[in-house]
From TrEMBL:
Cross-referenced InterPro entries: OSBP_sf, Oxysterol-bd, Oxysterol-bd_CS
GO terms under cellular component: cytosol; perinuclear endoplasmic reticulum; plasma membrane
Organism in which the protein naturally occurs: Electrophorus electricus (Electric eel)
Protein name in UniProt: Oxysterol-binding protein
Record's keyword annotation contains Protein transport: no
């Protein structure tokens, strides 16, 4: 049972009234004006007294002395009166300041107590929530919940009396269609109409074997109080929170972006498809596969420095070459370009928008991914879904993906709508579920996609569809009769001892492996990242602080130059990435960074003279 928690307030520790504070400030300002007036009078009378003394010294006739002495006495009296007034005003000011200082100290202490109590309340709630999670996972039947009745709550009763059931929100957006196997007669009628050369079991493209490393040093077991760091960061953007490497993994965000290519064979198979709809199904499976490596990856990648790059040359093994560059620091943005000899080109610009919300972190990738197949000219565009890291304060960290992906073929106008269902304790669906529908330009559905983003994706061809009432939910849904599903993609098993190597996949283990001839701005050359991988976390933290301070100084220098240029009515210098440039999208008009070329030519010549020094 949850404890009802409310911040307690002592009767003698009430928050300060705004009018009292303004009155105190006004009184102190008045006393300060009195002090200023007395100071001016003391200066004035002091100067007059000094002149009179000087005149007395210059007297030649004794008869004039009496008049001068009288003037001196008058001025000395005025000086004494003014000095006494100054002393009294100072005493009043000090007394008032001391009285109000005590009041403000009490108010400050009150705010500190309230903040401490709020932190304790949040931490206690987090522990209780974590206990409920464990209780539900261990003995879910004890709750005796009828999922059908919970579903009906959303469709029938919307009164204010049901505010206590808000935690069933995850079930609101249930699947809008139902799939059933087609009859044997229907399947026999479809025999011979479906090509078999695009599922995973067939048409696997073999690659030449290249020796790559298969392990890295085990992750050290360092303890650190996460709450002591994160409690002051609620509501801030994740990239602006100073973090020790204890919360990182030894890869940069550019390398994580390159990990999208883990299952590039899906695109190789898609390039051989004669059917645009089958090709779209494989593209959809590829878009889902990019999340498979994140299920256990709770470490934060290193924020790339401005101008940092990362190359991945896999021409010999997989037929592609990839180049990434950090094109902006605030907001953090990276541009990525991949060219494959197997018939496709992919590019993207991703800006990360992230917020820490107390118990979880939301990571929202902004930007579009473009994929073009050379032979057909099919141009696919889609965006990423939101990633959420849960149990930041207390409990075991876990990651969820949620949201929708709309993949559009700009040439044919075919679409694929994918839905990543958020995890719910009360859902009857399997965790990490992904469903989708592939439709042509007229909106007619041809394939149903289903699976999980951490396991596999399957495709089932639709042979018939009809509208029906969705059972207890009372909603009109489309019922699709489908042929048996075909496997499009299945996740590779993790390497041995992966739990001690940051849960890296086989590809991730090779991403930070040193190679010859790479640019001096490559992520593999980052000293903090390299030291962390070697298990030297203290040294890595020192290097991380040095690089971040160096980047801050460089940013201030550019801002100072820009301000100076504005003052002198000159054009300010704008940072330009080395390998990417902004171009407008021919269809939407939106500007994004695309590859301008030249990187691989520079690597072949080993001409890196234009690369900045960032490490």
């Amino acid at each position: 049972q949850l404890t009802h928690l409310q911040p307690t307030t002592k009767p003698d520790a009430l928050p300060p009234d705004r009018s009292l504070t303004q009155g105190a400030l006004k009184t102190l300002a008045t006393k300060l004006d009195d002090l200023s007036t007395c100071n001016e009078l003391i200066g004035k009378h002091g100067a007059a007294l000094q002149r009179s003394l000087s005149e007395l010294e210059d007297l030649r006739s004794p008869g004039d002395g009496a008049d001068k002495l009288k003037t001196i006495n008058e001025r000395a009296t005025l000086f004494r009166i003014t000095s006494n007034a100054m002393i009294n005003a100072c005493r009043d000011f000090v007394d008032l300041a001391e009285a109000h200082t005590r009041r403000w100290q009490r108010a400050l202490q009150y705010e500190r107590d309230q903040r401490r109590h709020l932190e304790e309340t949040i931490e206690q709630l987090a522990k209780q929530h974590n206990s409920l999670e464990r209780a539900w996972r261990e003995t879910p039947t004890r709750l005796m919940i009828n999922p059908q009745k919970l579903t009906c709550i959303w469709d029938v009763d919307t009164s204010d009396d049901n505010e206590d059931v808000e935690f069933f929100d995850a079930m609101e957006d249930s699947t809008a269609f139902i799939t059933v196997p087609a009859s044997n007669h229907t399947q026999r009628g479809m025999t011979g109409t479906l090509p078999n050369n695009w599922c995973q079991e067939d048409n696997l493209i073999q690659s030449d074997s290249v020796s790559r490393r298969s392990h890295i040093p085990d992750k050290p077991n360092y303890s650190l109080n996460l709450w002591s760091i994160m409690k002051n960061c609620i509501g801030k953007e994740l990239s602006k929170i100073p973090m020790p490497v204890n919360f990182n993994e030894p890869l940069s965000m550019l390398q994580r972006l390159t990990e999208d290519l883990e299952y590039s064979d899906l695109l190789d198979r898609a390039a051989l498809c004669s059917s645009a709809l089958q090709q779209l199904s494989l593209v959809a499976a590829f878009s889902v596969s990019s999340y498979s490596t994140t299920v256990h990856r709770t470490g934060k990648p290193f924020n790339p420095l401005l101008g940092e790059t990362y190359e991945l040359d896999r021409l010999q093994e997989y037929g592609y070459r990839s180049i990434c560059e950090q094109v902006s620091h605030h907001p953090p943005a990276a541009a990525h370009h991949v060219t494959s000899q197997r018939g496709w080109t992919l590019w993207q610009e991703i800006t990360i928008d992230s917020k820490f919300r107390g118990k979880y972190i939301s990571i929202m990738p902004l930007g579009r991914i473009h994929l073009v197949f050379h032979s057909s000219g099919n141009h696919y565009v889609w965006s990423k879904v939101t990633s959420t890291v849960h149990n930041i304060i207390v409990g075991k960290l876990w990651i969820d993906q949620s949201g929708d992906i709309e993949i559009v073929n700009r040439r044919t106008k075919d679409t694929c709508h994918l839905k990543f269902s958020p995890y719910s304790y009360f859902s009857r669906d399997i965790p990490r579920k992904v469903t989708g529908v592939v439709a042509d330009s007229d909106g007619v559905a041809h394939y149903i996609l289903s699976g999980t983003w951490d396991g596999k994706m399957e495709s089932a061809k639709i042979v018939e569809s009809s509208r029906d009432c969705g059972g207890s939910e009372g909603k009109l849904k489309t019922v699709y009769q489908t042929l048996p599903p075909k496997l499009l993609w299945k996740k590779y098993p993790l390497p041995e001892n992966a739990e001690n190597m940051y849960f890296f996949s086989s590809l991730a283990l090779t991403l930070n492996e040193p190679e010859e001839g790479m640019a001096p701005t490559d992520s593999r050359l980052r000293p903090d990242q390299r030291l962390m991988e070697a298990g030297l976390w203290d040294e890595a933290n020192a290097q991380k602080q040095r690089l971040e301070e160096q980047q801050r100084l460089e940013r201030r220098r550019r801002e100072a130059q820009a301000n100076l240029a504005v003052e002198e009515s000159q054009e300010a210098e704008v940072y330009q990435p080395l390998w990417f440039e902004k171009r407008a999208d021919s269809e939407t008009g939106e500007s994004s960074y695309v590859y301008r070329g030249g990187y691989w030519e520079a690597k072949e010549k080993q001409d890196w003279a234009q690369c900045p020094t960032i490490f």
